[in-house]
Write a structure and sequence with these properties.
Organism: Kosmotoga olearia (strain ATCC BAA-1733 / DSM 21960 / TBF 19.5.1)
Function: Catalyzes the conversion of uracil and 5-phospho-alpha-D-ribose 1-diphosphate (PRPP) to UMP and diphosphate.
Catalytic activity: UMP + diphosphate = 5-phospho-alpha-D-ribose 1-diphosphate + uracil
Order of helices and strands: EHHEEEHEEEEEHEHEEEH
Protein name: Uracil phosphoribosyltransferase
Oligomer: single chain
Family: Belongs to the UPRTase family.
Number of domains: 1
């Protein structure tokens, strides 16, 4: 599917299998979320520009390449997206962080906005973080909000995705790249991903 990158590295698949397991507790779930996000970030940042810099090794002078991570913005969708932030910042510690708060209305399954705080986006590379791309409605609304704030270069990172969610993003935001560890089978009657991993927010923060 256009603009979809499924990162099926053996390390990611190994960690994702443990993450899915219903017996995996919140501590390990948080650690695995961070680690999988870190590995996804490696792929999602392949397109970042580099600049040359002069450095001195212990033996001689040479030229190296670096990225400008101050021109990167991370936008987690509250609350589950918070679990992915550390994985990105461990690789790009100077990135700015914005926050979008959305919850799913149980009757309509549509997202309801309750919070938005974004830094100046300028021409930054922007990574929207949403562990579960289910219907895609929340991610699409979050991307709308980022675009309204001036964001242009946007990627969406999620742990797992449903075909329905991917289709929603491709249709509403065809310019956005999607990076995920797995494209799962489908949504169930309650719009949860199958086989999925349950509710990421509840498992991260032990709220059920």
């Amino acid at each position: 599917m256009r603009n979809l990158m499924v990162v099926n590295h053996p390390l990611i698949q190994h960690k994702l299998s443990i993450l899915r397991n219903k017996d995996t507790g919140p501590k390990e779930f948080r650690e695995l979320t961070r680690e999988i996000t870190l590995l996804l970030t490696y792929e999602a940042t392949r397109h970042l520009p580099t600049y040359e810099t002069k450095i001195e090794t212990p033996l001689c002078a040479t030229t190296g390449k670096m990225i400008e991570d101050k021109k990167v913005t991370v936008v987690p969708i509250l609350r589950a997206g918070l679990g992915m932030v550390e994985g990105v910042l461990s690789l790009m510690p100077n990135a700015s962080v914005g926050f979008v708060g959305l919850y799913r209305d149980p009757q309509t399954i549509r997202p309801v906005e309750y919070y938005c705080k974004l830094p100046k986006l300028n021409d930054n590379e922007i990574f929207v973080l949403d562990p579960m791309l289910a219907t895609g409605f929340s991610s699409a609304v979050a991307i709308d909000m980022v675009k309204k704030a001036g964001g242009k270069r946007i990627s969406l990172m999620c742990l797992i995705a449903a075909p329905e969610g991917v289709k929603e993003i491709v249709n509403t935001h065809p310019d956005v790249r999607i990076f995920t560890a797995s494209l799962d089978e489908r949504l169930n009657d309650h719009a949860y991903i199958l086989p999925g991993l349950g509710d990421a927010g509840d498992r991260l923060y032990r709220t059920k």
